[in-house]
Structures are given as structure tokens and as C-alpha cells.
VDHAP protein (Vireo altiloquus), 225 residues
Amino acid sequence: GEALEVNREVNCLTDFIHGCKDQLQKLKKQKEKGLLYGIPISIKDHINCKGHISSGGMVKFLGQVKEEDSVIVQVLKHQGGIPFVKTNIPQTMINYDCSNLIFGQTLNPLNPQKSPGGSSGGEGALIAGGGSILGIGSDVAGSIRLPSSFCGLCGLKPTGNRISPPGCSDSPSVLAVTATLGPMARDVDSLALCMKALLCQEMFQLDPTVPPIPFNEEVRLRGAP
């Protein structure tokens, strides 16, 4: 409900992920609770979710419904997270704004006269507006860092290949710089929890190209003041 309310104000969603309520019922019956148990998680438009399109803001992808979840979505679900909406991006995602000809312009909830940044702009707007507490964006040249900054949030661009790549719509890429998925939230502890949940045996098994190095809490705390 909150997400739809924020969307009415800033136009940040591209889709509602059906089946999320069923998933919650299924989770309740499981004995083992994952690190992200019951947390609704927003997902950037280009990350594949079964039964949905990954438009990348481009009309040519509108008819291509994805047949399976990308690895990151599978791992989020394995950890008890509930992907519930997909969020807007600029066309081709090579832009620091957030608009395309399919879903239109996303606004910054802190100031509707301003951009939320990009390319993970829908994520930035939704989380800053109070419609999500944790989201997954992606970053090549600032696409997590810029909207996090524009919207007053915390975001992390992990090291390249630390997390399994998107499994997403073909969009232009800068080969010299690895595109990487990463968390966006309102505080650093949420980012750390998400990384700890993602860097698990499930991810390393689903994508053997990802180095099987779990999250190191000591290294994070060592850097704290």
C-alpha cells in the first residue's frame, strides 16, 4: 500500500510482482527462517523476475516475459526476502536521470522539482518516499551511488563479480568497468544485513563464477569509528 502511495506521487514503479503474498504464506510454514525473513524488497526493473518483463526502459523488450528468476532474486527468496515491486530506470540505463518513453519520469520525493538520479532512480525514489525499506539496484558508473546521494539514502556498489550479475535485459555495457548489483536502504546496517544474506552458499552454488567468500562482519566493524 505504501509503495503504491509513493508511486502515485513520484511515478517510481514499473510492475507489481505477483505471487509475493503466496510466498509469504509459504515462508511462514518453513522451519528455518532466513536472514531477510518477511522483508519486502524492491527490485530494479532490469533484474529478471519470473513472469515479468525486464524492459531496461526500451520498447523492444516489452514482449519478452522472463521464464525464471535471476540468481539474486532466487537468493533473496531463499533468505526469506519477498521481492514485491520492480522500479523505474532511464532508457538503456546509461543516464543520471530516471525517465523513459514507457513509464515516464520518476520524481524525487524530497523535492518533486528534482530528479531522483539514476539509473537506479526508481529504487531511490521508492525507498526515500517510504515505500520500501530495502532495494536492489545496479551500478557501473554511479547508478546506485547517485540516486542514493540525490535521495539521502545509503547505497553500496560491491566489488565487481562479488554478487551474481543481473541476468537481465541486454543493455549497453561498459566492458572495462564491471556492472554490479548492490543494496540500497536508509542505513548502513541494512546494507550490511543484505550483503551478509546474499553472500551465502546458495549464491555460490547457483553461480559458481562468484568467489565463495562469505561476508566478513569483522572487516566491516574494523572500519567503523
The CA atoms of residues 59 and 102 lie 7 Å apart. The helical segments are 2-10, 20-29, 71-78, 121-128, 145-150, 188-198, 201-206, 217-222. The longest helix spans residues 188-198.
